[in-house]
Amino acid sequence: MASGADVQEKLKKGYYSVKERAGKSEVWKKFVSIIDEDGKELPFVACKECMQVLAYTTKIGNSHLNRYVCFIYLSFEKFIFACLINQYSVAYMY
């Protein structure tokens, strides 16, 4: 199984693509599914704004996706604070 970092790197290089997810939850307005070279959906999603990769399967649910705070929406001070206290899942900029 590939790690989130591996998936993020392949997504960045264009090996993987993304597709919109249909769902009842508001969280799907913020995330897209990740599709591999064979057209299969991977157990990961990406933030539409910053493309940070997070694990997702129907088995683990989407509550952690609801808690995710995209660093693009954080002010610099809030970003540093979030990094220091490790309260949010914040992405690194590449």
Describe the model.
The chain has one domain. The chain is built from three helices and four strands, in the order αββββαα. It has helices at residues 4-13, 63-67, 76-85, and strands spanning 17-20, 31-35, 41-47, 53-55. A four-stranded antiparallel beta sheet has the order 1-2-3-4, with helices on one face. A hairpin with a 5-residue loop joins strand 3 and strand 4. The radius of gyration is 13 Å and the shape is globular. The model has no long low-confidence stretch (mean pLDDT 82).
Summarize the structure.
Helix content is 27%, strand content 20%. It is of the alpha+beta class.
Number of helices: 3
Distance between the termini: 23 Å
Strand segment tally = 4
Largest beta-sheet details:
4 strands, antiparallel
Order of strands across the biggest sheet? 1-2-3-4
Strand content: 15-25%
> Helix- and strand-based class?
alpha+beta
Q: How would you sum up the global shape? A: globular
Estimated helix fraction: 25-40%
Please provide the ordered H/E string of secondary-structure elements.
HEEEEHH
Number of domains: 1
Low-confidence stretches: none
Mean pLDDT: 82
Using only CA atoms, what is the Rg?
A: 13 Å
Descriptive key words:
single chain; 94 residues; alpha+beta; 3 helices; 4 strands; 27% helix; 20% strand; globular
What topology emerges from the helices and strands here?
Layout: H1 4-13, E1 17-20, E2 31-35, E3 41-47, E4 53-55, H2 63-67, H3 76-85
Antiparallel strand pairs: 1-2, 2-3, 3-4
